[in-house]
Design goal:
This protein has seven helices and five strands. By secondary structure, it is an alpha/beta fold. It has a single domain, classed as Rossmann fold. Helix 4 links the parallel strand 4 and strand 5. It is elongated.
């Protein structure tokens, strides 16, 4: 399911969730969110209010995340609502915001909405899980010893 995220609303929720996150900025949040969406194998579109930094090239390098700044004339809320209303399959959308106006727009189109605080708790739980990668046996990379090779040759009746 694609996610639409009210950027500053989520950032406010993150900063309020503990001292270790109090200094988080937009760039760090986007990096963390890209990691989260990479892990769940999904995509998100984060919209921030304002013009953002002059050099936005950092925000274009994410594989699972698109980032947009609303500019001077629009608010992020307006862009999120436009995205909800123009989506051809709104039931697949997940709108992340604690803003009542955005959550109402999502429910009108039958999109799922999550409060920013709830989404952050869910994301943090997933990000804190250890990777489930299984370690490969060293023999896979190093090969068998001569003695082990001889044993297997004997077991299979080969010379």
């Amino acid at each position: 399911m694609p996610y639409l995220i009210d950027g500053h609303n989520l950032l406010y929720a993150i900063r309020g969730s503990g001292e270790e996150f109090a200094g988080m900025d937009e760039a760090v949040m986007c990096s963390v969110m890209n990691e989260y969406f990479s892990r769940i194998r999904d995509n998100a579109f984060i919209i921030f209010d304002g013009t953002g930094p002059i050099d936005k090239s950092f925000y274009y390098g994410f594989a699972n995340l698109s980032v947009k700044f609303s500019g001077e004339d629009l608010e992020a809320d307006d862009i999120v609502i436009d995205e909800i209303n123009s989506d051809s399959a709104p039931r697949r959308l997940v709108v992340v915001s604690s803003d009542r106006k955005l959550r109402l727009a999502a429910s009108r189109r039958r999109a799922t909405s999550l409060a920013s605080e709830d989404f952050w708790r869910m994301a943090l739980t997933r990000l804190n899980r250890k990777s489930r990668k299984q370690t490969e046996p060293s023999e896979k990379r190093q090969g068998l010893t001569d003695a082990e090779t001889d044993d297997w040759m004997r077991i299979f009746g080969l010379k």
